[in-house]
């Protein structure tokens, strides 16, 4: 059984199809990149998984539990957490207050303190700045905080929407180093939306390419960093064929 199973899922906004018959599976501990051009349906896929938008068709399961039809809080309770695009940090709250947001859904309140201590061990910069307002952190530190906050619910699957957005390449390197280290330490299962196939190829993992709301390619991320593979997936044929 897959950790995450997406079976023939379609999403529509009114009459606009955003995803059509998308099927994908993620194994426990796996790292998957979702890539594709603007409007490909990447955010719609994440929203459908997290329960933020309804599916028009198909079903989604996490460790065999049906997610489809459940509200986001119920999906979160079943073990899914999300690092949203733009991070959605509460700028006026302190770093530690941000980490505590969302822990209310947990039944094991006693474990929260231990988890906070563990996040601080993984992210020493957050420990250092625990009483600072989150709005005062740099973009990279805010991304770390968003990741730390998502870990606080002990997720079975963590989804990260465009972690590179607005960050300098060196900082993006640090963010990915952190994600990979967390995965190695905790056996975390990661689904990452990443526009840059080159970046995904460098980090490594499996890549699923979306275009026009459909899966148009799947394979080793490093192979997709190859320009021809991308051209083919985006435009339907390779640069060479297009020239003929
Ligand atoms: N709230 C909405 N109402 C109507 N159409 C929408 C809505 N959100 C997305 N769409 C449309 O659904 C399709 C998929 O959009 P989606 O945002 O999922 O793609 P994306 O790959 O995440 O794009 P981007 O990289 O620009 O965020 C697009 O055609 C988009 O215009």
From TrEMBL:
<dbReference type="InterPro" id="IPR052156">
    <property type="entry name" value="BCAA_Transport_ATP-bd_LivF"/>
</dbReference>
<dbReference type="InterPro" id="IPR017871">
    <property type="entry name" value="ABC_transporter-like_CS"/>
</dbReference>
<dbReference type="InterPro" id="IPR003439">
    <property type="entry name" value="ABC_transporter-like_ATP-bd"/>
</dbReference>
<keyword id="KW-0067">ATP-binding</keyword>
<comment type="similarity">
    <text>Belongs to the ABC transporter superfamily.</text>
</comment>
<keyword id="KW-0547">Nucleotide-binding</keyword>
<protein>
    <submittedName>
        <fullName>ABC transporter ATP-binding protein</fullName>
    </submittedName>
</protein>
<dbReference type="Pfam" id="PF00005">
    <property type="entry name" value="ABC_tran"/>
</dbReference>
<dbReference type="InterPro" id="IPR027417">
    <property type="entry name" value="P-loop_NTPase"/>
</dbReference>
<dbReference type="InterPro" id="IPR003593">
    <property type="entry name" value="AAA+_ATPase"/>
</dbReference>
<dbReference type="GO" id="GO:0005524">
    <property type="term" value="F:ATP binding"/>
</dbReference>
<feature type="domain" description="ABC transporter">
    <location>
        <begin position="4"/>
        <end position="237"/>
    </location>
</feature>
<keyword id="KW-0029">Amino-acid transport</keyword>
<keyword id="KW-0813">Transport</keyword>
């Amino acid at each position: 059984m897959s950790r995450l199973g997406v079976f023939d899922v379609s999403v529509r906004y009114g009459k606009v199809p955003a995803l059509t018959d998308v099927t994908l599976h993620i194994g426990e501990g796996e790292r998957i990149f979702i890539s594709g051009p603007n409007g490909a349906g990447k955010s719609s896929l994440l929203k459908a998984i997290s329960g933020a938008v309804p599916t028009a068709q198909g079903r989604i399961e996490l460790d065999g539990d049906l997610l489809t039809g459940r509200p986001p809080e119920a999906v979160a309770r079943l073990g899914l957490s999300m690092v949203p695009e733009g991070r959605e940090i509460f700028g006026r709250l302190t770093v530690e207050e941000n980490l505590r947001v969302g822990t209310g859904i947990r039944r094991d309140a006693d474990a929260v303190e231990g988890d906070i201590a563990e996040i601080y061990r993984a992210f020493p910069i957050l420990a250092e700045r625990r009483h600072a307002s989150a709005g005062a952190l740099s973009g990279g530190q805010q991304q770390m905080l968003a990741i730390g906050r998502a870990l606080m619910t002990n997720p079975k699957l963590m989804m990260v929407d465009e972690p590179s957005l607005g960050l300098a390449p060196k900082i993006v390197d640090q963010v990915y180093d952190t994600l990979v280290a967390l995965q190695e330490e905790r056996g975390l299962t990661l689904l990452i939306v990443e526009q840059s196939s080159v970046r995904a190829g460098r980090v490594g993992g499996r890549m699923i390419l979306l275009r026009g709301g459909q899966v148009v390619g799947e394979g080793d991320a490093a192979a997709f960093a190859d320009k021809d593979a991308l051209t083919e997936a985006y435009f339907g044929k390779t640069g060479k064929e297009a020239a003929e």
